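ARCHIVE RECORD
Type: protein–small molecule complex
Small molecule: guanosine-5'-triphosphate
Source of inputs: curated submission
Record status: active
Notes field left blank by submitter.
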Amino acid sequence: MRSSFLADDTIVGVATPSGSGGVAIVRMSGPSALEIADKFIRKRSAIWQPRYMYLCKVVNSQEQLIDKVLAVSMPSPTSYTGENVVEIHCHGGWLLPRLIVDLCVSHGARLAEPGEFTYRAFMSGKMSLTQAESVLDIIEAKSKDALLLATDGLTGRLSEAIRTLKDDILDLIAQYEAEIDYGDEIMTSDISSLVIKSETFLETVERLIDGAYKGRDVIDGIDTVLIGPPNAGKSTLWNALIGQNKALVTPYPGTTRDILEDYVNVNGVYLHLTDTAGLHDTSDPIEKLGIERAKEVLKNARIVLLVLDGSQKMSEEFMTIFSDIANNVRTDNVLVILNKSDISKTISEEDVRRILKIDCEICQVSLLNKSDIENVKENIVKICQTDMKPDIKPISVNQRQLQALNEIKESLISLQNGAKSNLTCDCLLLELHECLMSINCLTGDNVSDDIIDRVFSKFCLGK
Ligand SMILES: Nc1nc2c(ncn2[C@@H]2O[C@H](COP(=O)(O)OP(=O)(O)OP(=O)(O)O)[C@@H](O)[C@H]2O)c(=O)[nH]1
Ligand SMILES: [Mg+2]
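STRUCTURE (tokenized, with ligand):
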């Protein structure tokens, strides 16, 4: 962590969303936060007792009352940013918080850049880069589970695990450097212990990566796509799962052409659910485009819901199309919904397995029937849970952190291979330094300003 950072200016921003609301918070951080606040805040006591809420008046340069507010100070270093912080809790709305920000600026503060408060917290060592990123995840969380995960990230579970790994690598570097300095040969016992240690490090990082992928599922939803021939009931199911009649449903084949996406919590599993155009041979150029898109989406799908009309024989046309796309589908992640059982059960589950040559879960339903939809939901959850490695705990990571974790894994594999092939002490030291660099990339220690700028550019104003 960085601890030598000291900004010489004071920043101000509205920490709450703009628009009408009961209360808004104007936040100032920097060496002059208290002096600036004293210029326009009138309160009974002359002092600012730390973390004490004062009822006070905000006045303009003519001493006219602007608002009655609550104000609190948090002196350095025990504040969010690590600097002197003053928060002014004023009435909400569009205008008032901005007037107070203007007052701060007129008395010497500068408008904060997006994410600058958290940037300062990171720079002054109050949080690691991964923790700073968790703040962003908390703000952006779209579901309760995603929020809980992001909060978990803020308490530093990933940072903790990586910091322990870093300490172990640093110990090894110190040991090998000492051996080089004294010109000693590495003992065979040291090498075999390094092989064992690198194996343990690798296991830790692989578990973190598994947890990271599981975490992405919680945050982004599991990519789930509905495919099938036209008119089978895909959009009927999509609407039923998202709980709204958003997709057009008609008796005419070829109704859906665009890709329709939504996020839905199905009995506790968060899905990114995509409805697609019915797959068939067509000369209609617009439908053709829709079908191409459906095939594209299928390539990235984790769960495939194949909706078929079970009340009539499967067309040769669909069988051919399915055999062409079957390579892109993992059969253990397919749930076949054999629909329209209220009309007839012309196709059986065995027929589907035999004709499409797939061995997967099948449920015969009528999507017009509510209890059948519940049955489909239970089957979706079952498939997701088998795909989800139940012993792995999800962790909140973003794409940058996931990439960094994969780089740590690569460097550990290289270290392990080096140890197994009896590399010289110098070479092993190089491998250890490679590991250290990839760990630093994740934690934000010694990362380039480009990466830091990229992380903080995603934040909103006032955070
Ligand atoms: N009888 C009966 N009709 C159904 C059932 N499910 C859907 N339908 C009807 O079948 C027709 C087609 O349904 P959609 O959901 O639009 O089918 P789709 O697969 O999205 O069709 P495309 O968008 O054309 O590919 C509509 O008239 C639905 O009301 C069912 O279980 N039983
Ligand atoms: Mg449709």
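CURATOR ANNOTATION: Residues 129-443 form a domain with the Rossmann fold fold (CATH 3.40.50.300).
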